[in-house]
Amino acid sequence: MSQSQKHIHLSGICGTAMASIAGLLQLQGHRITGSDNAAYPPMSDMLRELGIPVLEPYSESNLDQVPDLVVIGNALSRGNPEVERVLDQRIPFASMAALTHDEFLKGRESLVVAGTHGKTTTTSMLAWIYQVAARENPAFEPSFLVGGVAENFGSSFQLRPTRTFIIEGDEYDTAFFDKGPKFLHYFPDGLILTHVEFDHADIYANLDAVKTAFKRLVNLVPRRGVIVAYDASENVTECVSRAFCRVERYGFKADSDWRIENLRLVSGVMHWELWRAGAKWADLEMRLAGEHNALNATAAAALAANQGVPIEAIRTALAEFKSVKRRLEVRAEIDGVTIIDDFAHHPTAIRETLRALRALYPQSRLWAVLEPRSNTLRRKVLETDLVESLRNADRVVLAGVYQQQRIAEDERLHPEDVVHALNAAGTPAALCPNVEAILDEIVPKLLAGDVVAILSNGGFDGIYEKLPARLKARA
């Protein structure tokens, strides 16, 4: 497809991955149009800056100028007017993941970062390691596609004529006509596997179904490839047990191939020793808190080292690494109150976020303000885990379940039960029906030195702007 310019239309263009693919395709020389039900930031802003027109809402007329190819996002299904016109007229179509393989991964070295947690941050770290290595050797400069804005790059994608393409491997399904996970299209030469837990309760029936998906990914890595896998998860161990390639484990265990030692946080900087095969390999530091981020960085370092990236580039890159938007991001500091934005989608992620904040702000009172929004958090299947995770905060406020009417009553999370369990366990908690009620609940109680972690994988009705505004008005 890249031999000549095509008109490619992306239906569902405002999704993070779809908007990034639109940018990559434009860099490849294609003419790009797109549509969505509603254009919303930050991807709508990015597309506007790229000069890519976004038609809204979905309509058959959006395809009146018949494109050479339609990329159908995984949120679209039969009954969508653009899907129906594509099928009626037999306009060529593809999924985002299949197009990514055909357009960008063929003929390149594909490095895939997969797992239930830490994918976006670890992919961004790996890409930045390669970018820093390119200062000495331009052949290392990477192309990449990540499910968030990597702050060192100020972008979620980059395209270079070099060999390496670094990509976040999502286990969510691909399209209505391809219900397998996206990452099965990426055929990794090198793979990082961070965690394997039950998630995406809307498409996976149980943990065994999740593990089957990851086992299939592992089975795609060639004998010459390498898998870097977390060492403290029985699920990860099971998933890599039948790999045909070399598997190197990372973590805190004494027999890990890549072992973290002497992890400590000093004045906001995390330091640790990284041991490889029983010998000290490097002293590393990074301006991100949390044991989970040390693990993410170690995984990125291990895969980069296996691909020949010099140790000095790895050390420098981690020291320079900033973060990813919406991962422990400080949104405001007003009247002595620090407001943190974190993309919370799963009880384990919530636990690690709160633990990291506890380490960063050991003297502060820590508030957790949670919107149950992800397809997993909106269901009660992990309710007990959620309660335990939230107990890492000093005060908890829950919003109502996002679009709860879309979840069957017997499957739905009941936040009042979570609040009751927290209060019974000694963690003060409240349930508020909307953002205005949340602000009325917490603003009068917030004190100088408090830290408020806003946990949601969506817009949360503008609380990120409304809370600072209320605090300014109070001050």
Structural class: alpha/beta
What does the overall shape look like? globular
Number of strands: 23
Termini separation comes to 58 Å
Beta-strand content: 25-35%
Major β-sheet annotation: 10 strands, mixed
Compute the gyration radius: what is it?
A: 22 Å
Average pLDDT across residues?
Answer: 93
Oligomer: single chain
Segments where pLDDT lies below 50 for 5+ residues? none
- Please work out how many helical segments DSSP would assign: 14
Spatial order of strands in the largest sheet: 8-7-9-6-12-13-14-15-16-17
Helix content: 25-40%
Question: How would the blueprint of this fold be written?
Answer:
Layout: E1 7-11, H1 16-27, E2 31-35, H2 43-50, E3 54-55, E4 69-72, H3 81-89, E5 93-95, H4 96-105, E6 109-114, H5 119-133, E7 143-150, E8 155-158, E9 164-169, E10 173-175, E11 178-181, E12 190-193, H6 207-218, E13 226-230, H7 234-240, E14 246-251, E15 258-266, E16 269-276, E17 279-286, H8 291-306, H9 311-320, E18 329-334, E19 337-342, H10 347-360, E20 366-370, H11 383-390, E21 395-399, H12 415-424, E22 429-432, H13 435-442, E23 451-455, H14 463-474
Parallel strand pairs: 1-2, 1-4, 2-3, 4-5, 6-9, 6-12, 7-9, 12-13, 13-14, 14-15, 19-23, 20-21, 20-23, 21-22
Antiparallel strand pairs: 7-8, 10-11, 15-16, 16-17, 18-19
Helix pairs in contact: 1-2, 5-8, 5-9, 6-7, 8-9, 10-11, 11-12
Task: Give the gist of this structure.
The protein is α/β, with parallel strands linked by helices. The protein is built from 14 helices and 23 strands. 32% of the residues lie in helices and 25% in strands.
